[in-house]
Amino acid sequence: MSGSQPIQQGVSARRAGSAHTSMFLRMLWRAAVLRRGRAASALLAMVVAAAVATAMMNLYVDVQAKLRKEFRSYGANVVVVGKDGTSLPADILNKIEAALGGRGLAVPFAYVVARTAHGQSVVVAGTDFERVQKLDGWWSVSAWPSGPREALVGRRALPAVSPDGKGFELSFQGHTIRLTPAGTLETGAAEDSRVYLPMAEFVAWSGVHPSTVEVAANGSSEEVNSVIGQLAGAMPTADVRPVRQIVEGEARVLGKTRSTLYAAAVLIVLTAALCVLATLTGWVFDRRRDFAIMKALGASERLVSGFFAAEAAALGAVGALLGFVIGIGIAAWIGRVNFNAPVVPRLSVLPFVLAGSMAVALLSAIVPMSLLRRVQPAVILKGE
Amino acid sequence: MFARLLYESFRRQKRRKLLAGAAIALGVAVATAMIAVATDIGDKINRELRSYGANLLVTPQEDTIDVEIGGINLKPPSDGNFLNEADLPKIKGTFWRNNIVGFSPMLPVNISLGDASDTKSANLLGTYFSKKITFGKEQARTGVRTTHPWWRVQGSWPADDSQDVLVGEHLASRLGKQPGGRIEIAGQSHRVVGILSTGGAEDDQIVASLAVAQQVLGKPEAVRRIYVSALTKPEDTLARRDPKTMNPELFDRWYCSPYVQSIAYQLQEAIPHSHAEQIRQVAQNEGTVLSRIKGLMLLVTLAALFASALAVSAAMATAIFERRQEVGLMKALGAGNFAVAALFFAESALLAIFGGVAGFFAGSLLAHRIGRSIFDSQITIQPVLFPVILAIAVIVTFGGSAAAIRRAVQFDPVFALRGDA
């Protein structure tokens, strides 16, 4: 846009409508280039404010999903049990997995009370070890069973069933199974008094099928509730209920965290906006001589206002776009540092940042403009 | 002369000084509020995490194994050992007593319901609801209403010294019981004051005060296990070490840190013949959740500090840039660069101190409001924060002014006075 060509074009097409536009753009461009320092500092403030705002909004939207994932380490939030202690149908796991659609994990459990060789009663459970490892990450296990006839023995059950750590026998309704302890299990809860077997071996030995399925359903509380509804609809013979301890604890902690983050986001965005307002107001006020010269040369009030407004809007838009990119980067970095997973960039945030930036920029142009409008150009040019 | 210049500058440019001071106060207020919230959020979230229930379980040392499926006890009730109820208040005498939010003793008893013609077996659970505990001069209320906040009662909670009972919702619908009805337990009639809903095994049980269960079992003072809910510090490598292998110095450090392991150790010391253990589902996970939320707030606080530092320095830069004519005049009258810079820095320092003090109190108020509205509790503001915040305010204001002052000083007075700068 610089150089002599646009001027010649402007001269040759003096009366054409395009001349106004080209002059307008030229003034905008030269204003940015000539007053590089001031324009750059205004733009910098804009970019930083937009970046911080983008990062906060992005975090606010994404952090709930990230934290929910952390909360799933508390284990199952839904349990499916047979009504009145009956076994669940054989295809229950398939039905549950169909209802979950890959957005959760289901682990079957079957229980019997067996007797040890010394006549001591002990609860024996059958389950799927691979799934349990994923669902109940807090189980402290010395070694997971891998071979046939290997059992996981709870810390408190161990002295009763296998005090010397060697193989032991369990009997249930006349059927006896010989097992070797692969490792010990420690949870601090009821699991410590049990012996765990792989499901297939458990069923072959006892003939008892799963009576409980623990389900960890991902998603918000509404999504979990809809999963509960679907499960209850698909399995009329089963009792599907949320684990209130887990569901309510999660809702509480998540709610508090969200509110705190929200308060922080509002404070930060407000501070950033005020910073931009202060810088830009100073910038526009500083150019009162340009304003006076334009008016002295016969520019209409509308044209001058339009010029300053366009300048502010352009600054706001450019600042918002640059800030958005940087803000996405900041959010991704926070996600990586804190959650070991980048925060997904949300394009839905962009319109808000863009509109907000331009609104703040326009506002900071309008305030000094309305002050300047009352002053005679001559007074400003005299330097008073 | 210097002092007069300074004084007159503030007297004559009240509006401008007020604007710059307001910008500083705002920045400092946001910074104070965010730092206060971030330093306190760990404690606040830790308390919220207690809504997951107890994280420690105390059982008799030489206990037989539990025979329990889905919360239903199948073990003969008099089998195994018991803890002594008289030892319970000692929990409030341990080193980390202030970190113990609450505890609930439990005594499950197998009972038969109804009269001789129609008996059914069921489980009765004896516990504290909200019992007053006295240890030395200290008094506290504790029970399931603190440790099991997800328990809901339709009707009212029984008093701990009454014979009233709660009936689990599944059992109540099977038996057709309503609040206000009566139920026959082991030949004695009890009033049902509420229907209990927990989403767990208690929905099929009867819950009564500990004294009622002890009376039914015929063992006064007996307690089967104690659930303890404690505020703990996330586990680290020191926490996981075996206290027996530590040297005395390390042991003291371990003992005096609120790790779940060291609190368990102290509970075992306080209650004779007991074994205390962390409930891993609750204890292990709260550490990760807590550190994630703390980390998040720390990073957000950094962003807030950055934004407020920027706001302060932008306001200062604008304020100084507007006064270059004044600089020109001073220099034309013979002031050196040093004198001009000193004047501006002195002004900045004054602004920073006034703005900083105002901002600190506004920020404290803001943090207080945030704590009230989000956590229903006070956010404590450490007094040490005050000098730190003030120092930050002065440094940031100086930093923000430095570039603008340098440029202002470097102007040629002639151009500055002509207004061409």
Number-wise, the strands of chain A total: 10
> Which assembly state applies to the chains in this document?
heterodimer
The unreliable regions of chain A are 1-16
Q: How large is the share of residues in beta strands of chain B?
A: 15-25%
Largest interface: A-B, 78 and 74 residues
Instruction: Give me the Rg of chain A, rounded.
Output: 35 Å
Mean of all residue-level pLDDT scores of chain B: 86
Percentage of residues assigned to helices of chain A: 55-70%
SSE sequence of chain B, one letter per element:
HHEEEEEEEEHEEHEEEHEEHHHEHHHHH
Short description:
By secondary structure, chain A is an alpha+beta fold. Chain A folds into two domains: 165 residues, no CATH class; 166 residues, no CATH class. Chain A has 13 helices and ten strands.
Question: Keywords for this structure?
Answer:
heterodimer, A: 384 residues, alpha+beta, 2 domains, six-stranded mixed barrel, 59% helix, rod-shaped, disordered N terminus, B: 421 residues, ten-stranded mixed β-sheet, two-stranded antiparallel ribbon, 16 strands, 50% helix, 19% strand, elongated
